[in-house]
Design a protein that fits this description.
Helices cover 41% and strands 23% of the residues. With 260 residues, it is of the alpha/beta class. It folds into 2 domains: 136 residues, 3-Layer(aba) Sandwich (D-Maltodextrin-Binding Protein, domain 2); 91 residues, 3-Layer(aba) Sandwich (D-Maltodextrin-Binding Protein, domain 2). Strands 5-1-6-15-7 form a 5-stranded mixed beta sheet, sandwiched between helices. Helix 3 packs across helix 9.
Length: 260
């Protein structure tokens, strides 16, 4: 009986240890472990996506490399749907999240954010053949596609008046929904739409801009003060030495917005 209880305890302990493997609250713990575990969607070009070699690339991925190098640790990514990123962070499966996450007052209630390392605008996109939709308000009365739990989905809900809102898993699903006719209009980030169009895709156009520039930040669990402070210092240094501009131009193709 004692052996069975001991065996059950050891199994539980192993599962618990694995589930909390990334739950390092202090910077010292992360450095001792030797790597930083980062959650990302891997589907939100130009911030985080898979290239032709099936490797993660993008603005967030480049910034993660800068942060890892500055901290003296390796970087490991856990790719998952955007809607699962913050729950995974809360559960201790990753140390932080880098996936073009908007900084909002609601999210600040549950998580800590770095200083902004990017800014984004929200746009409505349609098929290139749709010449009648000429503003963000064109979502009214239409079937609209957006990524579930994203800032863009929140923007659609605030404007309201749409016929149906399709809450999709990934940014690439928005383009599929438009091409297939499942959606009339998609709502996404200006950077993502610009990257898609500039990559040689002529089937989609931007109909209009909605919410103006809003800040994006790296997300941390509450209490990860040492890690957040260290990352803030790295971002601030990157803004001062030109890294911010270089990475923004490389991945997004335009000059980086200045801090307000």
């Amino acid at each position: 009986m004692r052996n069975r209880i001991l065996a059950a305890f050891l199994v539980f302990a192993a599962v618990f240890a694995n589930a909390r493997a990334a739950d390092a609250q202090s910077l010292a713990e992360i450095k001792s472990r030797g790597y930083l575990q980062i959650g990302t969607s891997g589907t939100g070009a130009p911030f985080t996506y898979l290239d032709s070699k099936n490797e993660l690339v993008g603005y967030d991925i480049d910034w993660a490399a800068v942060i890892g190098k500055s901290l003296g640790v390796a970087v490991r990514f856990q790719a998952m749907p955007f809607s699962g990123l913050l729950p995974a962070l809360q559960a201790g499966q990753v140390d932080m999240v880098m996936s073009a996450v908007r900084i909002t007052d609601e999210r600040r209630q549950s998580f800590d954010f770095s200083i902004p390392y990017s800014y984004e605008a929200t746009v409505a996109i349609v098929k290139a053949s749709d010449r009648t939709s000429t503003s963000f308000d064109a979502i009214k009365g239409k079937v609209v596609a957006a990524v579930a739990n994203s800032f863009q989905e929140e923007a659609v809900k605030k404007v309201g008046g749409y016929k149906t809102l399709l809450s999709l898993r990934n940014g690439s699903d928005i383009y599929l929904a438009l091409r297939s006719g499942q959606a009339d209009i998609g709502v996404t980030g200006m950077s993502a739409a610009g990257h898609y169009i500039n990559s040689g895709n002529s089937d989609i156009r931007i109909a209009g801009e909605g919410v103006g520039l809003s800040p994006q930040g790296i997300v941390f669990r509450k209490g990860s003060t040492e890690l957040r402070t260290a990352v803030d210092a790295i971002i601030a240094a990157g803004k001062a030495d030109g890294t911010y501009q270089t990475l923004f131009r490389k991945n997004i193709g335009v000059d980086a917005p200045k801090d307000p």
